[in-house]
């Protein structure tokens, strides 16, 4: 079984402490490029570029990463509904050519009505996923066929043609969604089904459900986890680092995050918020304290290199082969994770990704 490890691009700021009114480091071009270069240098296979109202534009950041690296695969997150799928297909194909065929796409439907509304998107939850399926149908039709007539519930094309074509025969699509509609979209159109680092039993249940749904379409997916890691030479040092990370949380920032959890209609986000209880610890060496002030991926594996490997191994044992990791600050932690953790998996890794 081949494992793939990716890092994360902090495009809304970074620092050694989280939950501050302003980030310690602004997301400058120079800093983002340095994070990507460090991730490539220490051996990560890919790097996720997030999408959303608080983040820099993912396409522009993806282009910057492509032009300052030579091997690492940018995983560019995009949202259906804001750009026509035909234009998104062209942008992806262009960047695929510029990169020499080393980009992936992360389709993000969105789970916050408030945040989506800030960008003018007011579709309710279930309709958003129906639009996502239509969007992905257009992308894959254009990537596969020379001339396209397409008629769907949200998008229509007449004699469409994708110029330029991509280098990759099929640009890999990562997709996350814990609702029934989200899992159905992943099963039908996704290549890697991506979840946040929840309890292993819950993650396994979602994998089995998506696997069964994909089988109905004659498809086989791969599975991924998005999670933070806090790894140090000793367990004590790791937990001390975890406590320092959240030691100066601004109460107003934490209150805003609590409000976000209450209004979000994302099934996965609602499950993640339930981990914010007690001392935030769960499973083997896992901690949900980051979720106090960070939406989405709010959990971490904490410990010495062997313990963090053990925490990730739980997911590997249920079929996960893709890990998108991060740590604060992302520049220094990319180096640390590359030195302490990635060698723990050296016999089971490959940088190649190919989907039929």
TrEMBL record:
Residue ranges the record marks as coiled coil: none
GO terms of molecular function: alkanesulfonate monooxygenase activity
Pfam family, one: Bac_luciferase
Residue ranges of every copy of the Luciferase-like domain listed in the record: 4-322
Keyword annotations of the record: Flavoprotein, FMN, Monooxygenase, Oxidoreductase
InterPro entries listed in its UniProt record: Luciferase-like_dom (IPR011251), Luciferase-like_sf (IPR036661), SsuD_RutA_monooxygenase (IPR050172)
A GO biological-process term: alkanesulfonate catabolic process
Transmembrane segments: none
Superkingdom of the source species: Bacteria
Endpoints of the signal sequence: none
PANTHER family (UniProt xref): ALKANESULFONATE MONOOXYGENASE, ALKANESULFONATE MONOOXYGENASE-RELATED
Protein name: Luciferase
UniProt source species: Paenibacillus beijingensis
């Amino acid at each position: 079984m081949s494992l793939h490890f990716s890092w994360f691009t902090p495009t809304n700021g970074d620092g050694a402490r989280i939950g501050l009114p302003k980030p310690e480091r602004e997301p400058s071009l120079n800093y983002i490029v340095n994070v990507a270069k460090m991730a490539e240098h220490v051996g990560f296979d890919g790097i996720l570029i997030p999408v959303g109202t608080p983040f820099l534009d993912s396409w522009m950041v993806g282009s910057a990463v492509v032009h300052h690296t030579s091997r690492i695969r940018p995983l560019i997150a995009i949202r259906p509904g804001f750009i026509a799928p035909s234009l998104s297909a062209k942008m992806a194909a262009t960047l695929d050519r510029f990169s020499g065929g080393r980009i992936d796409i992360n389709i993000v439907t969105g789970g916050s009505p408030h945040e989506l509304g800030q960008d003018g998107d007011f579709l309710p939850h279930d309709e958003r996923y129906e639009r996502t399926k239509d969007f992905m149908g257009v992308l894959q039709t254009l990537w596969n066929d020379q001339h396209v007539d397409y008629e769907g519930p949200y998008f229509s094309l007449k004699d469409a043609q994708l110029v330029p074509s991509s280098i990759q025969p099929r640009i890999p699509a990562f997709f996350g969604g814990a609702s029934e509609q989200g899992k159905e979209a992943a099963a039908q159109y996704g290549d890697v089904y991506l979840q946040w680092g929840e309890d292993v039993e819950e993650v396994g249940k979602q994998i089995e459900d998506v696997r069964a749904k994909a089988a109905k379409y004659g498809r086989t997916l791969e599975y991924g986890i998005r999670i933070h890691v806090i790894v140090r030479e000793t367990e004590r040092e790791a937990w001390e680092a975890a406590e320092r990370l959240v030691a100066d949380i601004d109460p107003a920032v934490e209150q805003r995050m609590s409000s976000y959890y209450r209004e979000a209609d994302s099934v996965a986000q609602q499950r993640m918020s339930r981990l914010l209880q007690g001392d935030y610890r769960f499973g083997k060496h896992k901690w949900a304290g980051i979720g106090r002030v960070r939406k989405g991926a709010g959990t971490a594996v904490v410990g010495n290199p062997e313990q963090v490997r053990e925490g990730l191994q739980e997911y590997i044992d249920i079929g996960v082969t893709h890990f998108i990791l991060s740590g604060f600050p992302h520049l220094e932690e990319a180096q640390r994770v590359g030195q302490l953790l990635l060698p723990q998996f050296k016999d089971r890794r490959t940088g190649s990704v190919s989907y039929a």
